[in-house]
Structures are given as C-alpha cells and as structure tokens.
C-alpha cells in the first residue's frame, strides 16, 4: 500500500499532453485511512451518493450492504465479484 498519492499524481499529471486522458485504477480501500486508496474510495462514495457530483469519475465499489452478515457465505459474492476466478470461495471462507 502506497503511503502517499505521489505515484498516482505523477501519472495523472503526466497525461496532460493527451487530448482525451484516461486514468484507470483498481484498488481496495486499504488499511490506512489517511492514504490515497482510502481517499479515492471516499471520492467515489461521494460521487455515487450524489453529495459531490463528478461527471469525470466512474467508480464501482463491491461491498456488503449495511445490515448484511459478512460471515454469511451467501454474502461473499457481493464483495467479491471475481469469486471463483481470481479468489476462491474456500479461501474466503477460511479467512472468516
């Protein structure tokens, strides 16, 4: 996990010469609530709930819904859309 957003910012500003720049990032929220991944998560949540409109941002957050029991095996697919492909159900169940 990167401690700062320096790498992300460098790549973003490096796209200034392009007519139609596009940044693609895949991440988890991370453990550091002061870190860049958690900050990007906050930005996407604000855009998705409409509190901060952003027509230049597309974001998807896979998570369990409030009130879901995260230990319920049926809930695993909500937060793990690639289950059975890059992460296996048995592994996730063993981590609960």
TrEMBL record:
InterPro entries, alphabetized: TerL_ATPase (IPR046461), Terminase_largesu-like (IPR005021)
Top-level taxon of origin: Bacteria
Domain Terminase large subunit-like ATPase: 4-42
UniProt-listed PANTHER family: PROTEIN YMFN, PTHR41287
Name of the protein this chain belongs to: Terminase
Organism of this sequence: Salmonella dublin
